[in-house]
């Protein structure tokens, strides 16, 4: 990968397939913006702190333990971010949010999460796509950030499958 200039943006995208579930089953779990911690156990905190639930302008506070930033044998730093809901589109089944504060080192981070039908032979299933754009961040590499997001998305998809099959 070519070295990026300090002023360039990082743009990334990852996807996870969920076989056997329809978009209509998956979307209600994703659109609950302040319940991300129910889908991803690494997210210990996900609370509404400002705004109207489900409406653009809502701000949630999320906290994640990151073992890669461990300061001791059994200790890991809590990374946290306040995230502002920018768009919630139940017709297109997507939402966008921006990090507005936190200790993650992310600057100008905006993400979009979408769910859509899988284009497979059997037509059964859906895909969750998580895309983002941000400025290069101190303490991160692009690949490290993309890897974390991919891991969170894969965990989300697995937990949605388990919740919907229970």
TrEMBL record:
<dbReference type="InterPro" id="IPR053249">
    <property type="entry name" value="LFS"/>
</dbReference>
<dbReference type="Pfam" id="PF10604">
    <property type="entry name" value="Polyketide_cyc2"/>
</dbReference>
<dbReference type="InterPro" id="IPR023393">
    <property type="entry name" value="START-like_dom_sf"/>
</dbReference>
<dbReference type="GO" id="GO:0004864">
    <property type="term" value="F:protein phosphatase inhibitor activity"/>
</dbReference>
<dbReference type="InterPro" id="IPR019587">
    <property type="entry name" value="Polyketide_cyclase/dehydratase"/>
</dbReference>
<protein>
    <submittedName>
        <fullName>Polyketide cyclase/dehydrase</fullName>
    </submittedName>
</protein>
């Amino acid at each position: 990968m070519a070295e990026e200039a300090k002023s360039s943006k990082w743009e990334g995208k990852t996807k996870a397939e969920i076989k056997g579930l329809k978009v209509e089953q998956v979307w209600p779990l994703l659109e609950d913006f302040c319940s991300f911690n129910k889908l991803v156990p690494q997210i210990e905190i996900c609370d509404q702190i400002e705004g109207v639930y489900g409406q653009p302008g809502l701000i949630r506070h999320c906290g994640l333990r990151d073992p890669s930033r461990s300061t001791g044998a059994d200790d890991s730093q809590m990374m946290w971010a306040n995230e502002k809901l920018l768009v919630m589109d139940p017709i297109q089944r997507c939402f966008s949010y921006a990090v507005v504060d936190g200790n993650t080192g992310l600057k100008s981070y905006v993400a979009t999460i979408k769910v859509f039908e899988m284009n497979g032979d059997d037509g059964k299933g859906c895909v969750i796509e998580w895309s983002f754009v941000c400025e290069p961040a101190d303490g991160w590499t692009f690949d490290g950030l993309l890897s974390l997001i991919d891991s969170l998305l894969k965990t989300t998809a697995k937990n949605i499958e388990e919740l919907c099959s229970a």
